[in-house]
Design goal:
Layout lengths: L1 H10 L14 H13 L20 H7 L1 H21 L1 H16 L4 E5 L2 H21 L4 H7 L3 E5 L17 H10 L7 E6 L5 H11 L11 E4 L3 H7 L1 H7 L5 E4 L14 H14 L12 H18 L2 H17 L3 E6 L1 H18 L19 E5 L3 H4 L4 H12 L17 H4 L1 H4 L8 H8 L6 E9 L2 E7 L7 E6 L7 H22 L16 H17 L1 H13 L3 H12 L8 H14 L10
Parallel strand pairs: 1-2, 1-3, 3-4, 4-5, 6-7, 6-8
Antiparallel strand pairs: 8-9, 9-10
Helix pairs in contact: 2-24, 3-4, 4-12, 4-13, 4-14, 4-21, 5-12, 5-13, 6-7, 6-12, 6-15, 8-9, 10-11, 12-21, 14-21, 15-21, 22-24, 22-25, 24-25
Length: 607
Amino acid sequence: STWDYYRCRKSGISMEPMSLLKDQTETSKASADEYLKIAPLFKLGKLPTECPHPTTIGLSSFIKSDLPLAINRVKELDTHTIEVLISKIGELEPLFKAITQTLDSGNKIFICGCGATGRLSLALETMWRQEIEALWGKTDPKLYARYFNSVISFMAGGDVALIKSVEDFEDHPEFGERQLFELGFSENDLLISSTEGGETPWVIGTSEAVANSYGTKFKQKPWFLYCNPDDVLIANVERSKRVIENPNICKINVTVGPMAITGSTRMQSTTILMYAIGLPMFRYHLLRKDTKPFQESVKEELVAFLDLYSKLDEAAFLAPFITKEAETYQYKDHFFYKTDPYFAISILTDTTERSPTFSLFPFENQRDPPTVKVPSLCHLILLLPESVTTGLKDEDLVKASWTYMLGKRDVRALNGPYWEKYKEKVSSERLFGHDFSYKLIPKRREYAKVNAKHHTFLIEKKGDHIHFCMLFDGPGKEISKEIDVKSLGGSRLAEHTLVKILLNTHSTLVMGKYGRYESNIMIFVRPSNNKLIDRAIRYVTYMLNQRKEELCKIDSKKFDLIDYKFVCNALFAEIETLVYDEAIVLKTFNRICKDLFSIAKAVQLDT
């Protein structure tokens, strides 16, 4: 406009705000332009799962000044999550009936998701297989053979994405469809999809592939579970609107509100989704320990869970573990999380999800050259009985670890011509480069920092108790605590959910002490797909607005030029040099403050 032109001329500012960004390459400009063309599809800032939760604003400060308060703030949200699920029991019964009909007729249930919901899908299958083996593995070969493989899970990128999500995979709806059909989905099978936000293209593509052929090629409608209000999704996300209004897709909305850490849907959203899908599965009549009606039986379990969790002094239980692990990382030392197959999948999930959430180095791949191998802060070690490991070569031991991790099934990697572009990320060869066996321990010491310590965090089921124990490499008294879970009635699902909640809180607050978020904002988000690029842009904008008064005193006219496009260009300029262990939000924020306001470093990390 004429006014904009006059204002810029008078202040000496170029009419093109992008010229204020220094050292921006043509490549980064082109990448930003490409993203901005599709940005309207991924602007998700109005979704509750992407908003800051008022209860945990200032969490990063509480962690340092009052750790019990921080733990209890997160516990409020987890308690609310179970209360929401109790209110949704009636909506789970139709899913229970669909699962029962599918299994009774000898067909299969397919469960899928992307990122955190993909991991919960694999966790549910693992629990199912463990439950079938515990019930009939030694007593009823016929039932064992019929049901052991009746639940099939898959996630965007295949099993290797348990360790590290495959960049940009979730932006491809056609990939979900392809994975589903490669696994042999047939006309009478049942698909259950989950997406925390209700907008993930990969999950939507998978669901629509079945829904679009319902009544012809497929006999059952797919199920779609998500955690944002229908009206908000319909108003803001066209692809979500399409699903919600599709009569051939059965929906269950389990909105729980914002996450403890803004956008960290691995927490409350994934908790309610895993429990909401698992309850109808594990109420299948041949697995039941009671004959009560579905809703009564489910309510009894959830009330028992809530009672146990409410009475647990989580602050006293977790505080010493949080303090010690955070201190360990500040000294550049490491932790081995050790467990047997019972809880392995849930512990693996929490430890691997720390990498994308807080931009940490992921579990290293043993097939990478030594020059690029960086030890992750923590790593899982799967404890297997000697009867399994004796005599196995290293390669076979790695395969056995994966097999037992996944409930004694073969791995599901993505091989073949269709996946050639992603071969280095999703193939069987890449997958088996990740080692969870006890033989990783000496290997890791070879490429870790000289004299780096590797402490142990042991988590295991012992009778009616879940045992947590930290053992130290060198001086230090062990920290040992346990929780009596007898009141959960032996529910494998409830026990895994409890461990998930505790570890999510533990790891989130460890990372808070380690300086990986500001207030409750995920400043270390890794912009590996379109949704996360939008999230990073919004977080940079949020930080700029937090400093608006200060920056406007320096130059209010330049501040007024900052918009979504400007921040996007600054972000892509920083992505070019981004490495693991760096905070893209802070890097971008600092770049804008330096280029526009001559502030050398507006924010420094204290880690």
